[in-house]
């Protein structure tokens, strides 16, 4: 095993370490004996022992055959061979990544600050001086080299070509694309001169590295991409997979030995937690940095569970065979449910508080000890799960809770650190990224509990978590209702509540404490909204939907869900317009303030629409981006995406499901143009974009009873019936029958606005939708 | 994710589509009223899911009744206000028993 260290001067030092990982087999004596015979007969480099280890689900020591492999790289091959030879034996510890096994065995972790003793290039002792649980730590001084194609960031797989731009040691170098030999020599020179620890690239996985390797082969000039010259660059092919209703495309991968390569365009959540989060996850999980950058956080949480198991001396099952236990139809009926998702009360509300349970599912697992081996355990009578009655062992801590508890704790520490720093402190962003990495690790831990192929997954544990989740949310509902709050909406781990008079953070402190006490789970006030709009469903306008809402908090910040600005396929121009309108409206302190600011918002929207219709919007800001939902040949209907795909295929550019597709609506029979094929200014389809624009504005203003025709009058004709565009009908007037309003107005003058659904006298205002369909 | 049973929304949509012939044969104005009732049922899908009732349609009917009764209470209250004869009817209490407590 070659282990790379950076010394205090930043020099990279490879040290060899002898390491004998083992896998285990359990089964009848005769079969284990045959396995030993077989391995000895072929003189495999193995150490064989009979030993006892703990099985997680049996909760007892079992006798197993330990096969230690003296050449770690051969472990996988030998284990497969044995498994083919005796397939009905149970195997353990067979597919844990070697780097992770190594750091676990030595008590270190990636990026640890270590004390090392070595002799003749061999490691004799190593000890970590810091801990993965430290919130603040020193990182090694990394020398970074970035590689990208010159010019605008575009995907070379779609035919984009440009010169190679290399940044290293504070200087930029450009290598001409048509002079391959000079380019290769130049990159080689920079690699040798600067000896970087980390290569960060844009499209390095799919284009730059493979092209460099190709050039190096073509000219017969070795290129020292690896520090370890004995190794070839690691390669994995591209693939698409299906996850949570989405097709995801992962491009091919090129990983290095002795230094790292991270492709920002092919990295998981690069924009969210970036390199800081990446390094944090590597420290926590023990997975190599290059792996962490390319896999989902689910792999990370799974690796942490493996680490817990190894630390406890528990065997890690290989190809777990554990079918769902038999249950009756009625039991299934009770259990096969997710979190509670309410239908909010549609309309515009004011002074609404949002309470969120912090990291609800992981907290439930820790608090109620929910783990694959504790749910339905037979070791003790246990505690019954609400609704289901499944017993949960309460005398030994489960493996999943043991893994998650310190993560939750560290996440809370980062949050506190972040809040303690002033807004402009640069460390704040580092903490935010590390915090975000934790958040993503915790988000995935729930899915893995219910995934039948997960090593530590079990469907009954998954069901127990959702059952507890429903119970806790309903308890919270009962607590707030008993104190006079009205529940406007509930969504799995959050409640939106309102009480006349309760307006600020201090009004909710006591309430939070009571919920915390009674449920045992941490809950926080996400914020109090100045105003908040729950939007109706597009298919059934009479009913609101759970995940389409927007609101302005008391500090003026916005929370937006489910509308165009949050969708990935909305063109930037429309997204920006929608966000800016919301920013204008966010100045309104309550529902009345929201309505009063409409003329200002409408004036802004009118100007933006005028620019759009005059052809002045930059074409780049009108590009629609979609994820390709299927393989190109599977398109049946000639949708916009299908047309763009055809154009790309026609231009000889291959596509796979899950890849990003970008196109522009253009006038004429062509209808759309794939953005990768646009190389000069093209006119865009004004009417198509006007339609998208109006829909986006309507999403925002419909809560103030602004319908499509009123909006068109305002934005396209610059006309308003009740005053300048943006001025709403007076209270009580039906906008569809303006002439009746004069009479009504006199009558309604003394009455408060019926729009404010949160107003106490209008308790059943969700019929709002019925009166103004 | 791999759910074995249809979700409550799917169950609702099934019930709704099973009423398609009934709805088709209704007069236009009755169709609109039926649509209102179905929208009412839809407002309580979360509670219906939590109830895990074997016959979701029964729960849907009850949800419609809940909404209808809320409308009745509301109208009754407004009528009382207009006639200035509050508390004539023995209407159920609208406010939770201890909502006037101000301990939170």
The low-confidence runs of chain B, each spanning 5 or more residues with pLDDT under 50, are 95-104
Number of helices of chain B: 5
DSSP strand tally of chain B: 0
Q: Compute the number of helices of chain A.
A: 22
Give, in order, the helices and strands of chain B.
Answer: HHHHH
**Total number of strands of chain A:** 28
Query: How far apart are the termini of chain B?
Result: 39 Å
What's the arrangement of strands in the largest beta sheet of chain A?
21-22-18-23-24-25
- Percentage of β-strand residues of chain A: 15-25%
The oligomeric state of the chains shown is: heterodimer
Radius of gyration of chain B (Å): 18 Å
Helix content of chain A: 25-40%
| Separation, N- and C-terminal Cα atoms of chain A | 70 Å
Percentage of residues in strands of chain B: under 5%
Name the overall outline of chain B: flat
- Cα-atom Rg of chain A, whole angstroms? 30 Å
Structural class of chain B: mainly alpha
Plain-language structure description:
The complex is a heterodimer of chains A (773) and B (104). Chain A is of the alpha+beta class and 773 residues long. Chain A is built from 22 helices and 28 strands. A 6-stranded antiparallel β-sheet of chain A has the order 21-22-18-23-24-25. A 5-stranded mixed β-sheet of chain A has the order 11-10-9-12-17, covered by helices on one side. In chain A, strand 7 (114-119) and strand 8 (122-128) form a beta hairpin. Chain A is globular and about 100 Å long. By secondary structure, chain B is mainly α. Chain B is 64% helix and 0% strand. Chain B has helices at residues 8-18, 20-25, 28-42, 45-51, 56-83. In chain B, helix 3 packs across helix 5. Chain B is flat and about 55 Å long. Chain B starts with 7 loop residues before the first helix and ends in a 21-residue tail after the last helix. Chain A binds chain B through residues 244, 330, 332-334, 336-338, 340-343, 387, 447, 450, 470, 474, 480-485, 490, 499, 502, 507-508, 510-511, 514, 540, 542-543, 763-764, 766-767, 769-770, and chain B through 1, 3-5, 7, 35-36, 39, 42-46, 49-50, 52, 54, 70-71, 73-74, 94, 96, 98-104.
């Amino acid at each position: 095993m070659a282990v790379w260290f950076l010394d205090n001067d930043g020099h990279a030092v490879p040290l060899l370490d002898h390491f004998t990982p083992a896998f285990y087999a359990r089964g009848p004596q005769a079969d284990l004996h045959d396995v030993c015979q077989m391995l000895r007969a072929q003189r495999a480099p193995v150490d064989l022992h009979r030993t006892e280890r703990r099985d997680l689900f049996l909760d007892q020591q079992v006798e197993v055959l330990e096969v230690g492999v003296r050449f770690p790289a051969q472990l996988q091959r030998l284990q497969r061979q044995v498994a083919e030879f005796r397939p009905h034996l149970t195997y353990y510890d067979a597919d844990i990544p070697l780097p992770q096994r190594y750091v676990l065995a030595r008590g270190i972790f990636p990026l640890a600050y270590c004390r090392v003793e070595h002799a003749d290039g061999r490691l004799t002792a190593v000890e970590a001086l810091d801990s993965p649980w430290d919130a603040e730590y020193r990182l090694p001084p990394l020398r970074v080299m970035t590689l990208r194609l010159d010019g605008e960031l575009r995907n070379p797989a779609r035919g984009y070509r440009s010169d190679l731009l290399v940044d290293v040691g504070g200087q930029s170098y450009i290598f001409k694309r048509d002079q391959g030999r000079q380019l290769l020599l130049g990159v080689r020179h920079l690699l040798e001169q600067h000896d970087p620890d980390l290569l960060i690239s844009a499209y390095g996985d799919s284009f730059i590295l493979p092209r460099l390797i190709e050039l190096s082969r073509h000219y017969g000039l070795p290129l020292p991409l690896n520090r370890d010259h004995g190794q070839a660059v690691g390669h994995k092919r591209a693939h698409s997979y299906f996850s949570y209703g989405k097709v995801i495309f992962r491009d091919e991968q090129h990983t290095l030995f002795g230094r790292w390569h991270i492709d920002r365009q092919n990295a998981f959540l690069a924009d969210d937690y970036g390199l800081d989060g990446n390094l944090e996850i590597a420290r926590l999980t023990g997975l190599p940095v290059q792996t962490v950058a390319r896999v989902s956080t689910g792999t990370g949480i799974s690796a942490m569970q493996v680490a817990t198991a190894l630390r406890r001396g528990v065997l890690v099952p290989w190809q777990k065979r554990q079918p769902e236990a038999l249950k009756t139809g009625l039991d299934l009926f009770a259990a096969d449910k997710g979190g509670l998702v309410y239908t909010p009360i549609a309309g515009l509300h004011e002074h609404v508080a949002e309470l969120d349970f912090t990291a609800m599912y992981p907290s439930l697992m820790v608090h109620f000890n929910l783990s694959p081996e504790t749910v339905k355990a037979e070791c003790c009578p246990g505690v019954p799960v609400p609704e289901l009655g499944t017993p949960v062992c309460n005398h030994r801590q489960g493996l999943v809770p043991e893994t998650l508890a310190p993560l939750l704790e560290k996440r809370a520490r980062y949050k506190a650190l972040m809040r303690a720093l002033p807004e402009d402190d640069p460390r704040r962003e580092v903490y935010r990224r590390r915090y975000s990495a934790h958040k993503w690790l915790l988000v995935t831990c729930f899915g893995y509990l219910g995934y039948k192929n997960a090593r530590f997954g079990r469907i009954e544990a998954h069901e127990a978590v959702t059952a507890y989740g429903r119970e806790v949310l309903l308890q919270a509902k009962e607590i707030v209702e008993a104190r006079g709050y009205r529940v406007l909406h509930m969504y799995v781990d959050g409640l939106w509540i309102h009480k006349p008079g309760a307006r600020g953070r201090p009004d909710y402190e006591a309430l939070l404490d009571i919920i915390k006490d009674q449920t045992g789970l941490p809950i926080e006030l996400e914020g109090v909204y100045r105003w908040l709009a729950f939007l109706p469903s597009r298919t059934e306008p009479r009913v609101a939907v759970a995940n389409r809402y927007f609101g302005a908090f008391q500090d003026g910040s916005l929370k937006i869900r489910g509308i165009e600005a949050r969708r990935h396929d909305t063109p930037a121009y429309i997204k920006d317009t929608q966000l800016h309108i919301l920013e204008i409206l966010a100045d309104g302190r309550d529902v009345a303030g929201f309505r009063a600011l409409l003329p200002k918002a409408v004036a802004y929207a009118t100007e933006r629409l005028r620019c759009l219709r005059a052809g002045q919007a930059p074409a780049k800001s009108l590009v629609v981006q979609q994820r390709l939902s299927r393989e190109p040949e599977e398109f049946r209907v000639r949708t916009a995406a299908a047309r763009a795909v055809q154009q790309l295929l026609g231009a000889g550019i291959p596509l796979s499901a899950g890849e990003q597709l970008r196109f522009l609506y253009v006038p004429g029979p062509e209808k759309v143009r794939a953005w990768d094929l646009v190389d000069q200014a093209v006119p865009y389809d004004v009417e198509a974009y006007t339609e998208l624009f109006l829909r986006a504005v309507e999403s925002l203003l419909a809560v103030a009873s602004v319908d499509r025709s009123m909006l068109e009058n305002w934005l396209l004709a610059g006309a308003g019936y009740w005053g300048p565009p943006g001025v709403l009908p007076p209270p009580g007037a039906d906008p569809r029958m303006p002439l009746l309003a004069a009479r009504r107005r006199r009558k309604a003058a003394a009455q408060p606005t019926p729009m404010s659904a949160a107003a106490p006298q209008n308790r059943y205002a969700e019929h709002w939708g019925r009166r103004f369909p | 994710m791999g759910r074995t049973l249809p979700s409550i929304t799917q169950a609702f949509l099934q019930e709704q589509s099973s009423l398609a012939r009934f709805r088709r044969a209704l007069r236009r104005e009755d169709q609109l009223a039926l649509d209102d009732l179905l929208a009412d049922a839809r407002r309580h899908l979360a509670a219906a899911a939590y109830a895990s009732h074997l016959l979701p349609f029964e729960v849907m009917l009850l949800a419609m009744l809940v909404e209808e009764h809320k409308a009745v209470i509301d109208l009754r209250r407004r009528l009382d206000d207009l006639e200035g004869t509050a508390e004539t009817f023995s209407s159920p209490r609208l406010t939770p028993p201890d909502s006037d407590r101000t301990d939170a």
